[in-house]
Amino acid sequence: MKEKCKIYLLQGNLFYSHIFKQNLINLGYRDVSSFNTIAECINHLDDMPDIIFYDYDVDFLDGEDVLKMIKKFYPEIYVLFSCAAEESGVVPKFLQHGAFDYFIKGQDEMRTVEELLINIIDVKKQLRRTNFRLFSKVKYMVCSRGK
């Protein structure tokens, strides 16, 4: 599933973004795109990324507004945000507004990111199995009534 996972990076620091992207590629993710502005990212949301990494430190808009905007139009996108340790007070607000999870920059972040990505893949697999079972059950009920 790694190869099929579309990831967007919404980062203000180009150097950090390039390193982060390369680390994701090294983990086996192939479809990784970087954006430096919220407008760029929003304009590409129709391509339906699976995951967006959002850097809280970026001075685009208020971080909560960005998250709300993404989740309003595309609730199925998993948003992971990063912040510095001193900004960890924003974590509860982001989680309330639909972020999947977060990580603290610099604190063994790539190990944490890898674990978060594995969690998302597991959740997506579970949802796919659950939806398949629900669809099969509904399809059976509809077909049974039609006889």
Oligomer, anyone?
single chain
Q: Can you identify the CATH superfamily?
A: Response regulator
Q: How far is the N terminus from the C terminus? A: 39 Å
CATH class: Alpha Beta
Helix content: 40-55%
Strand tally is 5
Integer average pLDDT? 82
Order of strands, widest sheet: 2-1-3-4-5
Which regions are unreliable across 5 or more consecutive residues at pLDDT < 50? 136-147
- Tally of discrete structural domains: 1
How would you describe this structure to a colleague?
There is one protein chain. This protein has helices spanning 14-26, 38-43, 63-73, 91-96, 109-146; strands spanning 6-10, 31-35, 51-55, 78-83, 101-104. It has a single domain, classed as Rossmann fold (3-Layer(aba) Sandwich), CATH 3.40.50. It contains 5 helices and 5 strands, in the order E-H-E-H-E-H-E-H-E-H. The chain is an alpha/beta fold. The protein has a 5-stranded parallel beta sheet with strand order 2-1-3-4-5. Strand 3, helix 3 (63-73) and strand 4 form a beta-alpha-beta unit.
Features:
single chain; 147 residues; alpha/beta; Rossmann fold; five-stranded parallel β-sheet; 5 helices; 50% helix; globular; disordered C terminus
How would the blueprint of this fold be written?
Blueprint: E1 6-10, H1 14-26, E2 31-35, H2 38-43, E3 51-55, H3 63-73, E4 78-83, H4 91-96, E5 101-104, H5 109-146
Parallel strand pairs: 1-2, 1-3, 3-4, 4-5
Quick overview:
By secondary structure, the protein is α/β, with parallel strands linked by helices. It is built from five helices and five strands, in the order E-H-E-H-E-H-E-H-E-H.
